[in-house]
Amino acid sequence: MRVSIHKNIANPKLFKEQLLSWAQQFREVVFLDSNSYPQQYSSFDCILAVDAFTSLKTDYYNAFEDLKQYQQNTKDWLFGYLSYDLKNDIERLQSNNFDGLNFPDLFFFQPKKVFILKGNELEIQYLMLCDDEFEEDFEEIIKTQSEIFVTLSGPEASGEVKQRISKELYIHKVNQLLHHIRIGDMYEANFCMEFYAEEAVINPLEKFQKLNEISQAPFSVFFKNYKNYLLSASPERYLKKEGEKIISQPIKGTSKRFSDVVEDEKSKSVLASDAKERAENIMITDLVRNDLSHTAQKGSVEVEELCGIYSFLQVHQMISTITSKLDSKFSPVDVLKTTFPMGSMTGAPKISVMEIVENLEETKRGLYSGAIGYFTPEGDFDFNVVIRSILYNQENKYVSFSVGSAITSLSVPEKEYEECLLKAKAMHEVLR
Fold first, then answer.
1. Is residue 243 packed enough to be buried (19+ CB in 10 Å), middle (13-18) or exposed (0-12)?
2. Residue 301 DSSP class
3. How far is Cα 346 from Cα 426, in angstroms, rounded to an integer?
4. Fewest CB within a 10 Å sphere: which of 21, 190, 214, 411?
């Protein structure tokens, strides 16, 4: 099916930049970069997939079944995304809010060309129909000008970034959520709001380079499907499958970074011992354990790490790691369907939270708080959570990014609002 060759790369950092610049010529591009972030479950430093041989694009109706058929029939590398609104395929839910982006609900493609970089080792895998292009492409990539932040398009007109929900309205809505918690409708909800710009003309590659530079997140993604773009600096893994092992790493809990080392350490230890943040994280860990149990071998669900503190360039985060062993009667797509949307972006109990939040949010989430990643030919997979991300529809000149925070009984609306602004900082900076 695929022909594979290996190359030694003297300067991996430079090569990654050249690879991504070279990829811009294709209609479909997925570039995943771990930014050398030290993590236990990393498979490679970066991977690039370009140029669809086959693809699947659909709305939410029957989407998981379509994906399952596609994955089982293709048995090859597949790259793509699951949007948050696929919840409507799993449960009797709806998404009726405003959508300025209009991306398909689900999109996956089988790439003709795949590049996998680990340290200095590059593996190139091409479908047989184009394996005569190996050397020519490789020559072209290493000749590619990789000036960082090189602008490939005409002048930019970012448009003014506006906030969909005002501070007053945000506080009002969070108070409504607190009322739902008090009367027992739910325990915790992730509530999101959108920032957007209309008539926006941006250079997606340049914006991604800037976002990646200031975030250096372990699940960064540059995604392009014709004129739809996702530029992501996500710190969060949604779900990974390695053989029969399933790994989920929800993030709940955020604190500021400081340039002063003492202040920074203090911020970290305050987060580690914060009762509200720990309660949020533990609730979601419990929800994930329950989600994984649907496809797990009996007694195999484990919490490997509870409330670990990890530092990123922009923020400190609290992360838990939950694993299970997959029962052989379930397919890879079954695991995604029984855990989607991820607990960290919904809340507990999941279904009633999704209903309540739909009524209070002003925007359809779409790809934001969905997942993007890949399936391997062996049926393994790895998906991130689409947060800290800029979405761009080049055709209708609409730019959007959303942020959210977890609302629990201990939430102070003004503090939640501040947390949202902290998470929005990097995207604001990039679009300025």
1. exposed
2. -
3. 23
4. 214
- Between 41 and 382, whose confidence is greater? 382
Angle at 69 between CA 77 and CA 346, to 5 degrees: 80
What one-letter code names the amino acid at 383? Answer: F
Q: Across the strands, what pairs with 251?
A: 319
Residue type, 421: L
Catalytic residue among 112, 252, 337, 364: 252
Report how far residue 316's alpha carbon sits from residue 257's, in angstroms, rounded to the nearest whole number: 6
Name the phi and psi angles at 202, rounded to 5: -125, 160
pLDDT, the chain, mean: 95
Digit-coded pLDDT (tens) for 25-67: 999 999 999 999 888 888 899 999 999 999 999 999 999 999 9
Asked if 64 and 337 touch (Cβ cutoff 8 Å), the reply is yes
71-76 own/partner pairs: CB under 8 Å, 24+ apart: 71/331, 71/332, 71/333, 71/375, 71/379, 72/331, 74/110, 75/1, 75/377, 75/379, 76/1, 76/2, 76/110, 76/377
User: In 144-186, where does DSSP find H-type helix?
Assistant: 167-182
The yes-or-no answer on residue 252 being catalytic is yes
Average pLDDT of 322-328?
98
Give the position of tokens 């972006």: 345
Residue 31, strand partner residues: 48, 222
325 is catalytic: no
147 pLDDT more than 90? no
- For the chain, state the CA radius of gyration: 21
pLDDT (tens digit per residue) in 272-307:
999 999 999 999 999 999 999 999 999 999 999 999
What count of other Cβ atoms lies within 10 Å of the Cβ of residue 70?
Answer: 21
| Residue in the structure block whose two tokens are 């990039």 | 430
| The two structure tokens encoding residue 159 | 């448009």
Catalytic position from the list 236, 280, 361, 419: 236
Q: How far apart are CA 188 and CA 113, in angstroms?
A: 43
What is d(CA 232, CA 208) in angstroms, rounded to the nearest whole number?
Answer: 7
Please choose, from the candidates 285, 314, 141, 114, the residue with its C-alpha nearest in 3D space to the C-alpha of residue 220: 314
> Cα(51)–Cα(225) distance, rounded to whole angstroms?
10
Backbone angles phi and psi of 94, in degrees to 5: -135, 160
What letters, b where the CB count within 10 A reaches 16 and e where it falls short, cover 106-124?
bbbbbbbbbbbbbeeebeb
Consecutive H or E run containing 215: helix 204-215
Distance CA 218, CA 337 (A): 24
In Å, how far from its chain's centre is CA 181?
Answer: 28
